[in-house]
Amino acid sequence: DEFVIHSPTLSSIKWWPTGMYASTHGIVFAQLYSKGKNYGYHGFMVQFRDDQGNLMPGVEVGEIGPKIDPRNTNIGYARFTHVRVPRFNMFARSQQLTREGDYIAAPPKLSKFKYIGMMTIRAGMVGGAYSMTANAATVAVRYLCIRKQGFKDSTSEDALNSGENAVLDYQLHQYRVFKALALAYTFHFSSRYVQEFLARVRDGVMAGDDKAADGLPELHATLAGMKTFCTWTAHQQVEAMRKSCGGQGFLRASGA
Question: What CATH number corresponds to the domain at position 36?
Answer without folding.
Answer: 2.40.110.10
